[in-house]
Specification:
- By secondary structure, the chain is of the alpha/beta class.
- The chain has a single domain, classed as P-loop containing nucleotide triphosphate hydrolases (Rossmann fold, 3-Layer(aba) Sandwich).
- 39% of the residues lie in helices and 23% in strands.
- The protein contains ten helices and ten strands.
- The protein has a six-stranded mixed β-sheet with strand order 6-7-8-3-9-10, sandwiched between helices. It has a four-stranded antiparallel β-sheet with strand order 2-1-4-5, covered by helices on one side.
- A hairpin with a 4-residue loop joins β9 and β10.
- The termini are far apart.
C-alpha cells in the first residue's frame, strides 16, 4: 500500500455505507441507505418493529449480501471484497447477537476461546488465559467454567460481549442488546458498552428501540421507517426529539418511556 493510500485509510471513517439495498428472496426491505459512522462513535440504528434494523445490520456485517450499494470498513471495500480480504476484515469487528448466541454445550471460557482458535495462532494455554482476561473485563471473573444455562440473562449478554471482544476489534455491533433484560441490568449493560468505548476506543454500532439506551449513550442515530423502506431521520437523538417535524420521528422519540433529561 502506498503512503498516500495508507494516509487515506487512516483518515477514513470506521464505516461507510452507500446506496445500500437490502432484502430477502427478491423482496426489498430497505433501499438507498447511506450512512457514515466515525471512529470511536456510539451509533444507533433505531425504529419500530419490522422497520429493517436487524436486516440492515446483517447486510452491513456480511451475513447477507446487499443487492445494490457498498459497505466499507476504514476505507476498505467489504461488501464487494474477495473472500481473503473479507476474512481479514472480519477480524476488525465483533458482534453481540440479541440472544447472546452462546454455545450451550461449552463453558463461558470455551465460548470466548472460539474466535481465538479460529483467527489466531496462539497456543492453547495463551488462548485460555486471554479468554479468562476477556471475561474478567466484562465482570465475569470467576465464572469461566460455568455453562450458559447456569447464569442469568444479563450475564449471558456479558459473556457474549466478552466473545465479541476476544480479537480486540475496532468495531463492535450489538443487535438489540437490552432485549429480555430488566431496566437495572439493561442500564448496567449500557454502562459496560461505554466502558468498552472509553477503554479501547472501540466504535460501537447498536440496533435498538429502547429509549433509555438511545438517550443515555448514543452519540448519533439513524431512524428507519417500514413504509418508507429507508432512513427518515439522522442526528443526535435529543435534538431530533425536540426539533423534528416528522410525526413518525417525534412519535417514536417522545414515547412515555423516554427517561427524564
Amino acid at each position: 500500500m502506498t503512503t498516500e493510500a495508507t494516509s487515506s485509510a487512516a483518515a477514513a471513517p470506521a464505516i461507510e455505507v452507500a446506496n445500500l439495498e437490502c432484502g430477502y428472496d427478491g423482496d426489498v426491505v430497505l433501499r438507498d441507505v447511506s450512512l457514515t459512522i466515525a471512529r470511536g462513535e456510539v451509533f444507533f440504528i433505531i425504529g419500530g418493529s419490522g422497520c429493517g434494523k436487524s436486516t440492515l445490520l446483517r447486510h452491513i456485517v456480511g451475513l447477507n449480501q446487499p443487492t445494490q450499494g457498498t459497505v466499507k470498513f476504514f476505507g476498505q471495500p467489504f461488501s464487494a471484497a474477495d473472500p481473503a480480504s473479507r476474512r481479514a476484515q472480519l477480524r476488525t469487528f465483533g458482534m453481540l447477537f440479541q440472544s447472546g448466541a452462546l454455545w450451550t454445550s461449552l463453558t463461558l471460557r470455551q465460548n470466548v476461546a472460539l474466535p481465538l482458535e479460529e483467527y489466531t495462532t496462539l497456543s492453547k494455554r495463551e488462548i485460555q488465559e486471554l479468554a479468562t482476561l476477556k471475561l474478567a473485563q466484562v465482570g465475569l471473573g470467576g465464572f469461566e467454567d460455568y455453562f450458559p444455562a447456569e447464569i442469568s440473562g444479563g450475564m449471558k449478554k456479558r459473556a457474549g460481549l466478552a466473545r465479541a471482544l476476544a480479537l480486540d476489534p475496532a468495531i463492535v455491533f450489538f443487535d438489540e442488546p437490552s432485549a429480555g433484560l430488566d431496566p437495572v441490568t439493561s442500564r448496567k449493560l449500557d454502562e459496560l458498552i461505554l466502558q468498552v468505548r472509553e477503554n479501547f476506543g472501540t466504535t460501537i454500532v447498536v440496533v435498538s428501540h429502547e429509549l433509555a439506551s438511545i438517550f443515555s449513550i448514543a452519540d448519533r442515530v439513524v431512524m428507519l421507517d417500514r413504509a418508507h423502506r429507508g432512513i427518515i431521520a439522522a442526528g443526535r437523538p435529543a435534538v431530533l426529539a425536540e426539533t423534528s417535524r416528522d410525526p413518525r420521528v417525534t412519535e417514536f422519540l417522545r414515547r412515555v418511556d423516554r427517561p427524564a433529561q
